[in-house]
Amino acid sequence: MANAILSSIADLARLRRIDLRPEWADAASKLTGEDEPALETCCEMIGWAPPTRYSDAPRTHEFPLLVFHPDRGWAVVERVEADNRLQVVHNGVATTWPDADRARIYDLVIPLPASRQRFERAIDVFKASVLRRKQVILLAILATVVVNFIALITSLYTMQVYDRVVPRGAFSTLWVLSVGALTALAFDFTLRVVRANLLEREAAHIDTEVSEFFFARAIDARLDTRPPSVGTMAGQLRGMEQVRSMISSGIIFAFADLPFALLFIFVVAQIGGVISIVLLVGFPVALGVALTFAKLIRKDTERTQVSNNRKNGLLVEAMDSAETVKANRGQWYMMSRWGTLLDELHASEVPTKKLQAKAGAIFGTMQQAMYILLIAWGSVEVFENRLSLGGLVACSILAGRVNGPLIAQLPNLLVQWSYSRSALGMLDGILKFPTERAANVDLLRPTRLAPQLTFRDVEFVYPGGRAGVNIPKLTIEAGERIAIVGGVGSGKSTLLKLMSGLYPPQSGQILIDRLDMTQVAEDTLRTHVGYLPQDYRLVNGSLRDNLLLGLPDPGDDRIMEVAQETGLANLITQHPRGLDLPIAEGGRGLSGGQRTLTGLTRLLLAQPKLLLLDEPTSNLDVDTESLVLRTLTKRLSPETTLIIVTHKLQLVGLVNRLMIFANGQVAIDGPAAEVLKRMQRPKTVQEPAGTGPKPAEMGAN
Ligand SMILES: Nc1ncnc2c1ncn2[C@@H]1O[C@H](COP(=O)(O)OP(=O)(O)OP(=O)(O)O)[C@@H](O)[C@H]1O
C-alpha cells in the first residue's frame, strides 16, 4: 500500500481482526500527505469517524493503536515499554522504536463488517442508528415543542384581540400584539424549515447505515442457507425504507405532538373550564378507536407484505428467465401465477384500504362533532358569563390543535406502523440467516496459507435432505494437479464449493494448510482460494469492473497481458469501448464462453495458490480451449494446487491425479494414467457400481 497511513490502518485492522473490504481504501486513493493532519483527512475520505489523539498513556487493553513518530512516521503500536521504547508493527513487520515520549498515539474506530455486528432483532439495528444521532433527534423534538408553544401563542393572541382590542378599540395594543404574533410566526417558520432539514439529513444517514448493514447481511448469508427466491428476499429488504420513515415520523409524534395535545387540553381547561370535558373524553376515545383499528389491520398488512414480496420475486424470476419462458411458451404459466398473486394481494389490501377509509371518516366526524359540542357548550358558558367570547374562540383553535395530530397523523401513522411491523418481522428473518463466519469467533488470518487440503469425515447435504457429499478422508497436497470426473449430478460441483469454503460441511472438517477452513477469515481465504463456478455470472458495470472484482488494480498492461493469454483480448480489442465494455444487469452482454474467459482472466490476475475450476472449458471452442490449457500449464507455479471438475478428456492431460466421483463420494482416486487404465479394463467385482462415465463418455462433451 503506497501511503504509510493506509498501510498502518490495514495493519491495525489485521491486528484487531477486522475484515476490511477489498476497496476500503479506494476513497482515500488521492491522499497525498503522511503527516498527522493527513490521518484526519484520510478518515474523512473513507467516511469513518475522526481519529482521537491520546493525551495520556493508553491503558493496556486499549492497544493496538496507531502511532505517529516524528522521525519514523506511522505504525501500529502494540505496547509502550518502560524503557521509553515502542513495540510497533511497521509495514507488517514487528519491530521496536526508541523515543516513545516523542510519539503521538491515536485511536481509530474501524467499523466492524455487518457479519461481525451482533443484532438479534432488526429494530435494534434502527435503534442503534437513531441513538447514534440522539442530539439531532433531541433538537428536532425541541423544535417541535417550540413550534407547538407558538401555536399556543396564536390562540392566546386571538383571545386578547376578541376580549380586549375589539370591545375597547385598543389599536395600539393590537399593533403590539400583532407584531409579537408575527415575530413568533417568523420564528415558527424558521424552526419548521430547520427541523425538516435536520431530520432529512439524518434520515439519509440512517438510511445509508441501515441499508448498508442489511445489504451486507443479505449478501453475507451463507450460500447453503439462503432462501431459494432471490426476488422475495429483495422485497424483504425493501421493507427497511418503510421502517425508517415510520421511525422518524413516529418519534416526533410520540415525543412532541402527542404530549402537546395533552398540554393543549390543559390550557383549554384553564381558559374554558368545563368545556374541556369534550376534549378530555374525545381524546382517549379517538386514541382507543385508533388502537382498535391498528389491531384490525395488522393481519391484512402482514399478508399484503408477503404477497408484495412474492410479486417482486415473480417479477425478478420472469425477467431473469425470459428466454426460457418465451422459448417454451411459458408466458401463460407466468401470467397465471402473476394473476393469482394479484388476487392474493387485493384480498389483503382491499380490507386494509376499506378500514383506513372508514377510520378516516370516523375520525373526521369525531373532529366535527367535538368542535360542534365545544362551540355549543361554550356558547352557553359565554351566555352565563363564565367564559369570554375571546376565550371560546381560543378554545376552538386549541381544540383544532388537539385534533390535528389525531386526525391528520394518527390513522396514517398506524397503517405505516402496521406495515413497518411486518417489514421488521421480515428483516428479522434476514438477521437469522447464518453468515459465512460466526460473529463471535476470533478468526485466523495467517499471512501464508499453503494450498493443501484435508477432508475429515465430511458430510454435506442440501436443505431438505437432498443429495450432497460424503467424504470420510481425502488429502490433497500443495502443488497437485487433480481432475474430478463423474456423472451428471454426482456432486462434483458441490465438492468444489466445499473446497472453496463457500459451503461449510454439516459435519466433519475441511482443513486448509492444517487450519479449519471455517475458522479462517473470509478475506484471507478468498486471497488464497480462487474458484471459477460452472455458470460464471458477471455483475452490472464494465468489463474492467468484472475483471478486477475484489482485486487491487494491477494496471491495464497487466490486464491485457493476461487477457492475451486466455483469449479474452480478442473481445477487448474488437469492442469500441475496450475494457470499458458495458455489462448489463445479471451479466448480460457477453456470451457464455466470454463470461468464462472473464472469470479465468480474473483468477489469473488474482494468482491464488489454490485454483478450483468447475468445467472451465465447457463453453469454449477448440482453439480457445487449447489456448486456455496452454496458459494454465505455463502460468501455474509449481506450488499452486489445481483442481478441475470436467467432463472432457483433454483437461485430464493437464493433471497427474484423477478422481472419479459418484453419488457424492470419491469412487476411484489415484494417478491419472493408472485410473484411466483401470477405467478401460472391464469392470471387476471390487469396483463400486455407478462410478461415473467411461473415458469415451467423458470426451463426448
Ligand atoms: N442448491 C441446491 N439445492 C438443493 N440441491 C442441490 C443444489 N445444488 C445441487 N443440488 C443437488 O446436489 C446434487 C449434486 O449436484 P452438483 O451440482 O454438485 O452435481 P455435479 O456433479 O456438479 O453435476 P453436473 O455434472 O451436472 O454439473 C444434485 O443431485 C443436485 O440436484
From TrEMBL:
Membrane topology, as annotated: Multi-pass membrane protein
Database matches in SUPFAM superfamilies: ABC transporter transmembrane region (SSF90123), P-loop containing nucleoside triphosphate hydrolases (SSF52540)
Segments forming domain ABC transporter: 453-688
Gene3D superfamilies: ABC transporter type 1, transmembrane domain, P-loop containing nucleotide triphosphate hydrolases
Single annotated GO MF: ATP binding
SMART domains recorded: AAA
Transmembrane annotation, as ranges: 136-157, 169-191, 246-268, 274-294
Pfam families linked: ABC_membrane, ABC_tran
Annotated localization: Cell membrane
UniProt cross-references to InterPro entries, sorted A to Z: AAA+_ATPase, ABC1_TM_dom, ABC1_TM_sf, ABC_transporter-like_ATP-bd, P-loop_NTPase, Type_1_exporter
Key words of the record: ATP-binding, Membrane, Nucleotide-binding, Transmembrane, Transmembrane helix
Chief location of this protein within or outside the cell: membrane
Domain of life: Bacteria
Domain ABC transmembrane type-1 residue range list: 138-406
Stretches for region Disordered: 680-701
Name of the protein described by the UniProt record: ATP-binding cassette domain-containing protein
